């Protein structure tokens, strides 16, 4: 899929895994992402399901390690934890923007990572 | 009529850069807004210059000199929903 290739090209030194689901969706995971300061964990995998209608359906929501929370204990709008993904607890990042031409999957992951790293 | 080519009238030198993994040609000296426009990304996207394993934000009005095959990422500002 072009989106996965774009993700790999955007993060050439990172591990990208893709698992096809029974319903045809793809679970794309960017491994070992540096979350920046202020979180209880320093790094996490970052995942998103790509619908069969991607890119018409934008990548949303994203998922991170279940124990992701702010070190000061403050709630974060858009962060819900835990949610269950195939029985595995994860933190859900509900960050939205309509997909537009010119934005690849790599740029979307970069935007999510940037959001994580710039939380007050 | 003497059509004299001066430094001011000469076409700017174009350089091939990469924006969101797509090749784009921009003038050697350009701005953040021009890079986004030539890359066909929305004007409200944020533009970042990839510098090793870091990225540096490029503002719309910021003038910069680009080099061949430099990489940029343009992405939206995400909002919790």
Query: What is the percentage of strand-forming residues of chain A?
Result: 25-35%
Largest interface: A-B, 25 and 21 residues
Q: Please mark out the parts of chain B with pLDDT under 50 across 5 or more consecutive residues, or reply none.
A: none
- Percent of residues of chain A in helical segments? 10-25%
Number of strands of chain A: 7
Total DSSP helices of chain A? 2
- The rounded Rg of chain B comes to 15 Å
Listing every helix as H and every strand as E from the N terminus to the C terminus, the arrangement of chain B reads: EEEHEEEEE
Tell me the structural class of chain A: alpha+beta
- As a whole number of angstroms, the C-alpha radius of gyration of chain A is 14 Å
Describe the protein in words.
The complex is a heterodimer of chains A (120) and B (81). Chain A is of the alpha+beta class. Helices cover 18% and strands 34% of the residues of chain A. Chain B is mainly beta. Chain B is built from 1 helix and 8 strands. A 5-stranded mixed sheet of chain B has the order 2-1-7-4-5, with helices on one face. In chain B, strands 3-6 form a two-stranded antiparallel sheet. Chain B is elongated, with a radius of gyration of 15 Å. The model of chain B has no long low-confidence stretch (mean pLDDT 90). The A-B interface holds A 6, 9-10, 13, 76-79, 94-97, 100-104, 106-108, 110-112, 114-115 and B 20-22, 39-42, 45-46, 48, 53, 55, 73-81. Strand 7 of chain A pairs antiparallel with strand 8 (79-80) of chain B.
Comma- or semicolon-separated keywords:
heterodimer, A: 120 residues, alpha+beta, 2 helices, 7 strands, B: 81 residues, five-stranded mixed β-sheet, 1 helix, elongated
SSE diagram, text form:
The complex is a heterodimer of chains A (120) and B (81).
Chain A: H1 2-10, E1 16-20, E2 26-34, E3 43-50, E4 62-65, E5 79-85, E6 88-93, E7 95-96, H2 105-117
Antiparallel strand pairs in A: 1-2, 2-3, 3-4, 4-6, 5-6
Helix pairs in contact in A: 1-2
Chain B: E1 14-19, E2 22-27, E3 29-31, H1 32-39, E4 46-51, E5 54-58, E6 63-65, E7 71-75, E8 79-80
Parallel strand pairs in B: 1-7
Antiparallel strand pairs in B: 1-2, 3-6, 4-5, 4-7
């Amino acid at each position: 899929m072009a989106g996965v290739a774009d993700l790999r090209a955007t993060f050439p030194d990172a591990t990208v895994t893709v698992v096809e689901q029974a319903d045809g969706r793809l679970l794309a995971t960017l491994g070992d992402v540096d979350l920046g300061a202020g979180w209880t964990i320093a790094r996490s995998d970052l995942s998103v399901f790509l619908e069969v209608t991607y890119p018409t359906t934008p990548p949303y929501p994203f998922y991170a390690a279940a124990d992701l929370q702010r070190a000061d204990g403050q709630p974060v709008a858009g962060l819900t934890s835990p949610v269950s993904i195939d029985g595995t607890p994860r933190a859900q990042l509900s960050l939205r923007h309509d997909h537009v031409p010119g934005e690849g999957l790599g740029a979307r992951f970069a935007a999510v990572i940037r959001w994580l790293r710039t939380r007050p | 009529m003497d059509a004299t080519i001066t430094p001011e009238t000469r076409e700017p030198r174009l350089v091939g850069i990469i924006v969101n993994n797509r090749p784009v040609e921009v003038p050697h000296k350009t701005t953040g807004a021009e890079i986004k426009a030539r890359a066909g990304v929305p004007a409200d996207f944020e533009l970042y210059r990839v510098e090793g394993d870091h990225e540096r934000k490029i503002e719309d009005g910021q003038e910069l000199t680009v080099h061949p095959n430099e990489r940029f990422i343009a992405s939206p500002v995400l909002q919790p929903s």
